[in-house]
Design a protein that fits this description.
alpha/beta; five-stranded mixed sheet; Nucleotidyltransferase, domain 5
């Protein structure tokens, strides 16, 4: 079995593959203060919940955008499974040319998503990841990572609104009854949700025009389904796209 880990700024997603089949996935909070001992206890506690014997996990791969946690996580994986994980970073074989001016600047999760998306459609594609930041990643019809765009995430934007506007209450990020809000909560939800729908549609239009057209737009991340339900720009939602990309990259580096 293969253990895959995607460390994001807010959440860490873990999965276990048996061949090409994802047999279980977990989502936990990303805690920068968690020690290797605590992480090992967490891993050994989660696996039995899914009925997975850690002795059957023969390899691991990690993509992390939180450098301070990478070594701690790798140490915990080594202790738990008795092997060192493969880390997505410079020198790893992705099978995808990176056309960024400095490839080392591209987040590991963005490359992993790009690999998974291109493997799925085998044509030009844009990946929209609704994480702590909302990222747009562009892949050419030849399977080249072209670059993309980074915007503040929905939760960050909403938090800034709640924090800096004294008379606006904290509210759930959810679809309002209509775009024209008739109370403060619905007005805020309209601005946040439909404002992001407009952001997605405008950015995808602009990026696709520079790419000469795309065949697909794939969304992933926490708010992907909420936004996808409100726009025809998004063709597919896959919350576990990053895990699939990690599996593919592992196979290319065996």
């Amino acid at each position: 079995m293969l253990f895959v880990v995607d460390v994001g700024n807010t959440h860490t997603v873990l999965g276990v593959y048996d061949g090409t089949r994802l047999i279980h996935d977990f989502r936990i909070e990303t805690s920068k203060g968690r020690t290797a001992d605590e992480t090992q206890i967490l891993l050994t506690s989660l696996l039995p919940i899914a009925g997975i014997d850690r002795q059957e996990v023969r390899a691991s791969i990690v993509a992390s955008v939180v450098p301070a946690l990478t070594d701690t996580l790798c140490e915990a994986i080594d202790r738990t499974f008795d092997h060192e994980p493969l880390i997505v970073g410079p020198g790893i074989k992705t099978g995808m040319p990176i056309l960024y001016e400095n490839p080392r600047e591209v987040g590991a999760d963005r490359i992993v998503n790009a690999v998974a998306a291109y493997e799925r459609v085998r044509d030009a594609v844009i990946v929209v990841d609704f994480g702590t930041a909302t990222t747009f990643d562009c892949i050419s019809a030849k399977g080249e990572y072209l670059g993309g765009s980074i915007a503040p995430g929905m939760a960050i934007s909403a938090h800034a609104l709640f924090t800096n506007a004294a008379r606006l209450p904290r509210t759930e990020i959810a679809k309002p009854p209509r775009a024209i809000g008739r109370n403060t909560i619905h007005s805020m939800q309209s601005g946040i949700v439909y404002g992001y729908v407009g952001l997605i549609e405008g950015m995808v239009d602009r990026l696709a025009a520079e790419m000469g057209g795309v065949t697909s737009v794939i969304a992933t991340g926490g708010f992907s389904q909420l936004i996808a339900d409100e726009t025809e720009m998004i063709d597919e939602v896959d919350d576990l796209l990053t895990l699939e990309g990690l599996r593919i990259i592992y196979e290319r580096n065996r």
